[in-house]
Amino acid sequence: MIWRSYRDPSATAAAAARHTLTLLDDALSGQDRATFAISGGSTPKLLFEELVKASYRWERVHLFWVDERAVPPTDPESNYKLAQDFFIGPAHIPRRNVHRIAGELAPERAAEHYAAHIREFFALDEGELPRFDIVQQGMGPDGHTASLFPGDPLIEDREGIAAAVFAPKPPPWRITLLPGVLLNARHTVFLVCGEDKAPAVHAVFNDDYDPKRLPAQVVAHHGRSVVWFLDDAASRILRTS
Question: What is the phi-psi region of residue 205: left when phi exceeds 0, alpha when psi lies from -120 to 50, beta otherwise?
């Protein structure tokens, strides 16, 4: 597992943005379009701002979401709204390239709708999983990633594309990509900042493999081309162990 540590969240987000843009350039050098699945939260907001600064040409990049809260797209809790306000709008990403999760629908229906849209976009055969070029993930202090929280039986799911989940914190209902999709990505960029994440970061890297306790271990241990971008606070224990 590859990890890189930087002095603060801003420097960490800037490094993750540079890495992401390099991956997009590589993908677009050999294909007509690239797919990029993003997450929500305060740290991805910094990533979005760095991506906007780069003045990248986004016409051939299609945006998807790793997870979403079961709220309307105008709700302050919406991952889509965060991306719209700080990334999609400022970067002038074409609307046709934005593939949001319909969080305003009933959670199960939203998950079914999102999975069906992904199948259509990627022209998948029955049972086939999509392969995103880049998936950007974060991690909570409890070791959760996407909206896969400790103890959730969906952590074992390697066949489904998306599902509704009941989270242990508000807003409770979420729609999330499932582990099989996350593992199938060509590249994964973990962006994790904050002192409160340090114990979980150390545990994901060094504790015995137990994804029911630490869901982020699934991709950290078994994903392809996974790079962790950490600030010094989040990597504090890892750096001294």
Answer: alpha
Return the pLDDT at 41: 84
pLDDT tens track for 161-180: 999 999 998 899 999 999 99
Q: d(Cα 169, Cα 55) in Å, to the nearest integer?
A: 36
Distance separating alpha carbons of residues 27 and 3, to the nearest angstrom: 22
* Adjacent-strand bridge partners of 68: 175
The 3-class secondary structure across 88-112, one letter per residue, is HHHHCCCHHHECCCCCCCCHHHHHH
Residue 79 corresponds to which tokens in the numbers above? 């991952």
> Which of left, alpha, beta for 10 (phi over 0: left; psi -120 to 50: alpha)?
alpha
Residues of the domain holding 178: 2-26+33-204+228-240
What is the distance between the alpha carbons of residues 42 and 6, in angstroms, rounded to a whole number? 17
Domain count for the chain, please give it. Answer: 1
Supply the mean pLDDT for the chain. Answer: 97
Inside any domain, residue 125: yes
> What pTM did the predictor assign?
0.97
Whether 209 is covered by a domain: the verdict is no
